[in-house]
Amino acid sequence: xxxxxxxxxxxxxxxxRERAEHEALVAESTPAKDNKKKVTTSQAAKTPAKTSAxxxxxxxxxxxxxxxxxxxxxxxxxxxxxxxLTNYSVAVIAMLIVFGTAVWLVDTGFVAxxxxxxxxxx
Length: 122
What we know:
Low-confidence stretches: none
Helix content: over 70%
Mean pLDDT: 82
Shape: elongated
Order of helices and strands: HHHHH
Strand content: under 5%
Number of helices: 5
Number of strands: 0
Distance between the termini: 58 Å
Largest sheet: none
Radius of gyration: 30 Å
């Protein structure tokens, strides 16, 4: 599993380098207007650019952006296999039984103490 994550990370880094190189080539090929200083990729990285979420102010557009981000995030999720899911489910059910029994015993003990202290019978 770690190797898979490492491969994903290196692929992301390679895409990021390609994007930076492409932006540098585009910045060099476009002529500067009004004698303004060209913005290098390191300077461009320092200045925060407005994202599409910041530009969209309407409720529908924000909702659409949110749902698109949720969909993208769900694609990145590493889902458990069927055996892992079964093992996790059995572990959760076993812990529910253990803690449920412990709470029941403590509750029964408190009730017995209160009956003994007050002398009342239910």
